[in-house]
Each structure stands twice: as structure tokens, then as C-alpha cells.
Design a protein that fits this description.
Length: 87
């Protein structure tokens, strides 16, 4: 069974608002919310998710979290990726 992946918008660094209206605190389930997350952000997230789903360890931020940024240089939303534990 593939692990459940959660993406959370945790920080904003750019000077403009998100074109899709994403705000800090927004959360997305990778399997059920794909159409809700900005396609550009999803494009960047996919390699990290693929690594996690196949048991690998992607690069981590200094605080130990797995993070990636929106590729729009005017927006620069920072997302955290987490593997949710299933019981």
C-alpha cells in the first residue's frame, strides 16, 4: 500500500499573492486533492512524492522537514510534505 502524502503551505516568500489563491495553512492530500493544488507546485512536488512512495529519503530542510517551493518567482510559496502514518 502506498503511503498517504500530505502537502501543507507553510510559508510565503514572494511579493505577490498566489495565482490559485493558496494561503499559508492550506493542506492537500496528494491522492484526493490533486486538482486543487496549483499545477506548477504539483510539478515540483512530484519527484519528492515519488521518492517517498518508493521508500527513499528526499533532501530535507535544516529543521528536518521535507520542503519545496512554488516555481513562480513572484509568489514563492513554500510547501511541507509529510507521510501520514496509517494505523
Amino acid at each position: 500500500m502506498r503511503p498517504k502524502i500530505k502537502l501543507t503551505l507553510v510559508e510565503k516568500r514572494g511579493i505577490h499573492g498566489c495565482h490559485r489563491g493558496h494561503k499559508i495553512g492550506d493542506q492537500f492530500d496528494y491522492d484526493t486533492d490533486r486538482g486543487k493544488l496549483c499545477p506548477m507546485a504539483m510539478h515540483v512536488a512530484f519527484p519528492y512524492i515519488d521518492i517517498l512512495r518508493y521508500g527513499g529519503t528526499p533532501p530535507r530542510a535544516q529543521n528536518g522537514e521535507i520542503r519545496f517551493c512554488c516555481p513562480d518567482s513572484d509568489v514563492i510559496n513554500v510547501f511541507r510534505i509529510e507521510v501520514e502514518e496509517t494505523t
